[in-house]
């Protein structure tokens, strides 16, 4: 980027004024979520690199940007002319940030970061890896040097009734306090906006896709102080919160509040979800610190288990979503016939959003839609762009992975469509992915099972064919909240969180054949009680998603009788549930798509 | 037990002479293996309790014995008249040893243990849980108070040629040293007799079932000192060892050796496999300590991966074993006909050993044989006894779980026989166990997979029927060594060890219906390379065990086509491999038992 050198120079100026050797600019904000406002896009502003993951490091001698393999090509092109070295992560010969800095600086060198953007845990781990270099905290230099920096957005907050959330804030507070020390004065502090939104039964719109608002909350035995911008809460919402035991404070005052806790109070927070700046404020004021060591945090663990009302909300959201998908699929089929090689991925991405918007309860997309044709689908994180439109031919696969926010639930569905001729290998792959998806859907497992024990059920059929996908099988999903929500997961890697009745997780085995095609089939599944007997307690899954699975690519003989039965049962349920919501033409189409196989 | 009070009094006398408040007597010896010599059976001698797991604690006021649910009934009866309180572990209201001792002793109380019987890790964990009580190390009090204490046995050691082990000791030493610090003087010290036996290509017979000999080894950059009893090594073996770079030292001198290491040497050992006494000796002599943090230890991890020669040895052992099993199964069938309700579990346990002993390479049983009829099989650890003989009727299941040591491999096989009428539920359970066993046998999985990712393949079919087994699915197996060998396992619980080509593991799903019946089907499986391609490296299993599986209890319609195909393929392999080793009558029987189903 042509302006980059100038912007780096401004950062260097800031550093030399303070006698600092290097500055590290991460991706992210002070709330440690998946998305952040443009205000925080400093790394992009300086470097020109637009990818979602990347860390820029600036010294007086030079600059370097670390990113992962998804972005190597893009970064190389975007960094052109900037004099910034691309550091390809997990590639042989690439130094770590700490190793590189030790080469660049003298032993007494000081490295600095904006302490609002680093969690306590990340800061301490960086500090120890940098040794003997010193790590220091500075203010945000970009307020001064980024002249047209966007403003922070603080949009209106709206509240959800307990008919949607199933539980009042005061009851949630009570359940949280039950997990905190009984005999000690504490402040349990949250910076994670999704936890706060869940707890307070509020939603916002400060960032894309996740219905969140910038906030902190401090919970003591007696009080709950919600730190939000002064202009975002209406009088009605304020009164509701007050009734639930939540008082409002200015967003800007969270730091001062922690500074003034004093010595007799203990700060409890997740070390990876509180900024080192806020942590240091509390400590410098004298407060002791206890880490919230529960994976996902005390609040996050409660949030992950959806209550009956939330579960019902998911089911309603799935019905809305399925109607939109059916309309989309009919549109897709007819347009491909009408305009062979005339429709684009980008157009289709807009179309499914359009069909969803016909529901009055639709509140937007839950993530950036993936509509990927042919070889594009071999990139798991591909997103169609307006600038670079790709036309859809009448052969191979089209992969569509999209999700929505409804007033009472979040969806995330992937279907891969056989829109034309397929090779035998493509059909095999499609069938193996489906087998894995079905195996996991059907799982019955003892209480205490972790997701890592179930991953192989979904991955195994592909492995038997010598194929694999390099990502997890399932992520948690929020209730009209973040589509990627912890703490549970279903993946190869160990995650100590046990699957519990009420958790909603995705089920998305896949296969990616480089430069050729990609297949993914994804439902959301709800963990539920299955059976309790002398052998113990068993759980299983209810499939929430209600979208027909394209059977045209299935090689029926590769499915077991049980798998065929599951698939036919699924389609029967889809048809019975969705048909009443469709007009008669759509009903006919759906009945045909849901016909039994085998 | 009637003598117990007297023996406890002798221990109390020892304690009061030394101003010690309590003494903890564990089960085990100074080598931390599964079996130990009678010399170390002090807990049994004092308490009368004969179970394999239990810890006795004696204070001036009273005594208590902690054991697990397997032994509650037995312990209650064996402790009768001893005044020892039975502490039922994992039962509500049962205090931990530390909690109980804190109640029994004053705050300044001292608890003591024989430092040879506690690992450094266990000692330190006990020490911290006992605080503010002090923990101290004493000598073994039983040399003085146990008048007719058995002698320590040191039997002759014999060596195995590289045609059996596949690798010389000098090469093994080289591979071990490659994992130790290059730039520092170290003593890598092993107390684990199976690791030493593997490394030195030696075997012994000091304890039951495991062909081991009491020993330590100290490995430095230049030398390897094997500490064994002076009388157990013949001149020929001594010379062989010398050629391989192993020098002999007296078993008794291991402690002195560590004491004299001095300050410039670093002791490297597994904290859970070195006695706190030996560790303290090295430390008091000035040596620094580095824990061997590899799960299973540096040597144990190498030992777990069987080389091609060892794998071939397993295959030979399996052939011998299968011949004995076939003879046993024929004997069982004909005797049941001849003597309905006339044969006993105990007789059958002897019989299978007898058939095995017909092989010149047989070296004994690899564990205490389980022959369990009817409800007895519902106890996973049941062993038939001579005193309490159980006759076998012509109905239900007979479970036989036995294994052998051969000169070139170790076996461990369970078969459950339908020896008469079965209920529908019994047949379902048998089929679900078999499905699980087959699923795991057929698994294909990526490099890097841990056993916990595969357990559900074996456990799942039973869970779907609302049933479970409360033990792991698979344990590692040694090569003419311990039938229970680490570090890998296949179980629900997380174990970070990745399955590697060359590892031999059991595959033994099961179901236990209390007071009614038990079913277990167990093969040994060898992890091997399966495929390497652009998606990565995949592993799978070779089934080593060659014993027909009773198909009379199978409900074929519950098996998938793939499972039927696997079972028929397995029986074809068994028949083709074993038939040539049998006489014609046995061949006929085997062919019938290996007939295709479905």
Number of helices of chain A: 19
What is the domain tally of chain A? 3
Q: State the oligomer.
A: homodimer
Shape of chain A: globular
Work out the number of β strands of chain A.
28
Biggest interface goes to: A-B, 35 and 35 residues
List the helices and strands and how they pair.
2 copies of one chain form a homodimer.
Chain A: H1 4-17, E1 22-25, H2 42-47, E2 55-59, E3 63-67, H3 72-78, E4 84-88, H4 97-104, E5 110-114, H5 120-130, E6 134-138, H6 142-145, E7 158-159, H7 162-165, H8 169-177, E8 186-190, H9 193-200, E9 202-203, E10 216-219, E11 224-228, H10 235-243, E12 247-250, H11 254-259, E13 266-269, H12 276-284, E14 288-291, H13 297-304, H14 308-338, H15 345-356, E15 362-365, E16 370-373, E17 397-402, E18 404-406, E19 409-410, E20 413-418, H16 424-441, E21 444-446, H17 455-464, E22 474-476, E23 485-490, E24 504-507, E25 510-513, E26 517-520, E27 523-533, E28 536-543, H18 561-578, H19 584-593
Parallel strand pairs in A: 1-5, 3-4, 5-6, 8-13, 11-12, 13-14
Antiparallel strand pairs in A: 1-2, 2-3, 7-9, 8-10, 10-11, 15-18, 16-17, 17-20, 18-19, 21-28, 22-23, 24-27, 25-26, 27-28
Helix pairs in contact in A: 14-15, 16-17
